[in-house]
Design goal:
The chain contains no helices and six strands. The chain is mostly beta strands.
């Protein structure tokens, strides 16, 4: 059994609100690995605190796969979800047109944008 850890920036496309027995909760979906065809495989996790667009989260846990008719759904089992960074005001850290940077990409960050 392996643990997968990923970092994801919250936006409208990867976050949704669902109704549970304990009330409304937010769910985030994040790419975890590419399949044999080169398409990303996504996994979902419940978020136990309020997040807003632009927040950067780290999600860590074991992936469980469940069959739902003809589809396979991947979910983090007992995930650890933590907020790494909460931007000040409106999210301006990464332009929506560029998306999240890939590993090895160079990005410029102003000292004012750092949380420490």
């Amino acid at each position: 059994m392996s643990i997968i850890t990923t970092v994801v920036q919250v936006n409208d496309k990867n976050t949704r609100t669902v109704n549970t027995q304990k009330g409304e909760k937010q769910v985030i979906s994040t790419p975890i690995i590419k399949d044999s065809t080169g398409k990303w495989v996504y996994a979902s996790a419940f978020i136990n605190f309020r997040v807003e667009n632009g927040d950067i989260l780290t999600i860590s846990g074991r992936i469980e796969q469940k069959e739902d008719g003809q589809y396979l759904n991947n979910n983090f089992a007992f995930p650890t979800v933590e907020r790494l960074y909460k931007p000040k005001g409106t999210p301006t850290s990464v332009p929506a047109s560029k998306g999240l940077p890939e590993i090895g990409d160079e990005i410029e960050i102003n000292d004012d944008d750092l949380p420490f």
